[in-house]
Amino acid sequence: MRRLASLLFITLVSSLAIGCTAATPDHITIKGEDYSTSLTTLDLASKELTSSDIEPLKHMKKLNILILSYNEITDISVLAGLTSLEYLSLNENKVDDIEALKSLANLKILAIQGNWDLIGTDKVDELRAALPLCDVQITY
């Protein structure tokens, strides 16, 4: 009986641990600079950022405006969880896949000029179909 009780306790503790999620930090660090996770606007233009540099942005759930223009970003999948975004600028990066942005239902303006690997693909049209209220700005 004691063994059964121990086994049940371990199972319960394991179940609770699986359901727990890490708390959102109160700040993130990008290229040595700290930013509060309570910010609603963040301008990170022209900071020579790469995809790995922007990984901490996943904690910026309150962002409405995010400017990442003029960097070296290729992968933007980390942005998929930023569902409060209304304006996103990715001008002049090296983004070639915008699938992750389809989850951003509140997005009103997406600026992606200068991401040349997107031009001539169906990816922009697919995003426009997924987010019909979003003004997708791209140079053709």
Topology:
Layout: H1 2-19, E1 27-30, E2 33-36, E3 41-43, E4 65-67, E5 87-89, E6 109-111, H2 123-130, E7 135-137
Descriptive notes:
This protein has one domain: Alpha-Beta Horseshoe (Leucine-rich repeat, LRR (right-handed beta-alpha superhelix)), CATH 3.80.10.10. The longest helix is centred in the first third of the chain and has 18 residues, at 2-19. 19% of the residues lie in helices and 16% in strands. Strand 6, helix 2 and strand 7 form a beta-alpha-beta unit. The chain is of the alpha/beta class. The radius of gyration is 19 Å and the shape is globular. The strands form 2 sheets. The protein has a 5-stranded parallel β-sheet, covered by helices on one side. The protein has a two-stranded antiparallel sheet with strand order 1-2. The chain has 2 helices and 7 strands; from the N terminus they run H-E-E-E-E-E-E-H-E.
Structural class: alpha/beta
Give the percentage of residues in beta strands: 15-25%
CATH class: Alpha Beta
By DSSP, the count of extended strands is 7
Distance between the termini: 72 Å
Question: In short, what is this structure?
Answer:
The chain has 140 residues and is of the alpha/beta class.
Defining key terms:
140 residues; alpha/beta; Leucine-rich repeat, LRR (right-handed beta-alpha superhelix); five-stranded parallel beta sheet; two-stranded antiparallel ribbon; 2 helices; 19% helix; 16% strand
